[in-house]
Design goal:
The chain has 25 helices and 10 strands. By secondary structure, the protein is of the alpha/beta class. It has a 6-stranded parallel sheet, sandwiched between helices. Helix 2 runs antiparallel to helix 12 and helix 16 runs parallel beside helix 20.
Length: 458
């Protein structure tokens, strides 16, 4: 059992029975569940919209090399510099090189899961730079020394009382502030950071090939300030974020908003096609775009797993997943949690170390049902399990257990052999992990097969 698997089991064991954690998550998700159906009403034919979005992403991923080259050519015309990074280490080296050449002391950062993936904040801090999260949820998590809990809602597991207590401890504010007052405190502190920052770093919700643009959607306006205020703007984005055309945003922005937060459209939507031009009054003096692979071409080369690159990071599958809602985002110990994280992480990292995530699923299919771009997530989880076995990552005991189960399931005499008391004793004696959070299994006196046969012979 890998170290990651042991951590996952230990953390899950603690979180699953934590009623206070479940109360907070259920409260926050209930608000999400209440507004998403309203947002979906904007689509005359929701299923057609989802299917069209999936087809657009299919076309983009199937021609990924050409789309990325087109993007590079177009944005370079406007003065931006595109950097290709095969690994997280390469991306970090390039960012450090840019920061050092500009004598950077302070970096402001908008919400970006890719920067979490490469652990940018601790890296910059190790090299003597302050890296400040400007998204409110990310700012809360940074103050608390925690990674994001959720792809879209970083501090979903915290109540307003938790945040008030955190601000009191870290910022010296009164402990009874309400959400509006807490937001104003964060706003005041972050405004000073914008003024001091030499470099702003953002991610990208979409990379638009035909115009050479970075598309960002947000609710707070912090990403716009991060892009426009500092003299240097660095974008870091996974190569799978590409879409072919600017007109595609007319579909993807509403889909992302509705499935991510229940809104028809988020408050601020920006397309950035380069640094400040000669006829423009604001914006950064220079712009760098780092296109990150970091294992994505592993997924691209896998014909079955490739579909997972269609993901637009709306987080809907996390909100729908019964496992995620019980064990929480931090139990996964990886940047991308929930069903989509369980699908892509074993390919982005090492299958042997991370295959356990693909087994942490009920396979209920709810993640597939709610996916904005109709990714067959539960089927991909099964594919991961199969791939792990094909690669020989299963333990000897696991292999023997499945071999015995297969022989029993394919032999009716074996299934009916033995009394219910013997079966109950054997299972409860040896399947110990089942009993840790559950009562004993109890086999009926007769199997369904025996009851059916008796019924037919009446």
């Amino acid at each position: 059992m890998s170290e990651q698997s042991q951590y996952f089991k230990a953390r899950s064991t603690i979180k699953a029975p934590d009623k206070e954690h479940r109360r907070k998550i259920n409260f926050n998700m209930s608000r999400y569940n209440a507004v998403v159906p309203l947002g979906k009403q904007q689509f005359p034919n929701l299923e057609l919209a989802r299917e069209k979005a999936k087809n657009i992403k299919w076309r983009a991923i199937e021609s990924l090399d050409k789309q990325l080259e087109r993007f590079e050519a177009e944005i370079s015309k406007k003065g931006a510099k595109v950097i290709w990074a095969e690994t997280a280490e390469e991306a970090l080296r390039e960012i450090l090189k840019i920061c050092k050449s500009r004598s950077c002391r302070t970096v402001v950062k908008s919400k970006s899961m890719v920067t979490e993936e490469i652990h940018l904040n601790p890296f910059l801090e190790q090299h003597g730079m302050e890296s400040v999260e400007t998204d409110l949820g990310e700012y809360i998590q940074q103050l608390d020394g925690e990674p994001p809990y959720h792809i879209v809602t970083p501090a979903m597991h915290k109540s307003k009382e938790d945040v008030a207590k955190l601000f009191a401890e870290k910022l010296g504010t009164p402990s009874n502030l309400n959400p509006s007052e807490l937001t104003l405190v964060a706003r005041k502190n972050l405004r000073e950071k914008y003024r001091a920052a030499e470099i702003g770093i953002t991610g990208a919700n979409f990379i638009v090939a035909d115009v050479g643009g970075i598309a960002i959607t947000e609710n707070e306006g912090n990403a716009r300030l991060t892009m426009a205020w500092p003299k240097t703007h660095i974008v870091i984005a996974g190569i799978e974020k590409i879409i072919p055309s600017l007109t595609d945003l007319g579909l993807f922005w509403p889909l992302l908003s509705t499935f991510g937060t229940g809104q028809k459209i988020t408050v601020y939507n920006s397309v950035i096609t380069g640094p400040r031009q000669v006829n423009e009054n604001d914006g950064p003096e220079e712009m760098f775009v780092i296109l990150l692979d970091n294992g994505r071409t592993n997924i691209l080369s896998n014909v079955k797993a490739r579909e997972s690159l269609y993901c637009i990071r709306c987080g809907a599958c996390l909100n729908a997943c019964p496992v995620y809602k019980n064990i929480g985002g931090h139990s996964y110990s990886t940047t991308y949690s929930g069903p989509i994280g369980a699908v892509i992480t074993p390919h982005l990292k090492e299958m042997d170390d991370w295959k356990h995530l693909s087994y942490a699923s009920s396979l209920c299919g709810n993640c597939t049902e709610v996916c904005a771009v109709k990714i067959n997530l539960h089927e991909l989880l099964l594919e991961n399990r199969n791939e792990a076995v094909e690669q020989g990552h299963g333990s000897f005991s696991e292999k023997m257990a499945w071999k015995f189960w297969k022989q029993s399931m394919m032999n009716r005499k074996l299934m009916n052999a033995g009394s219910s008391k013997i079966k109950t004793w054997v299972v409860n004696k040896f399947v110990k992990s089942w009993k840790e959070q559950r009562s004993n299994l109890q086999f009926p006196e007769k199997s369904f097969n025996q009851l059916w046969s008796a019924q037919k012979n009446k």
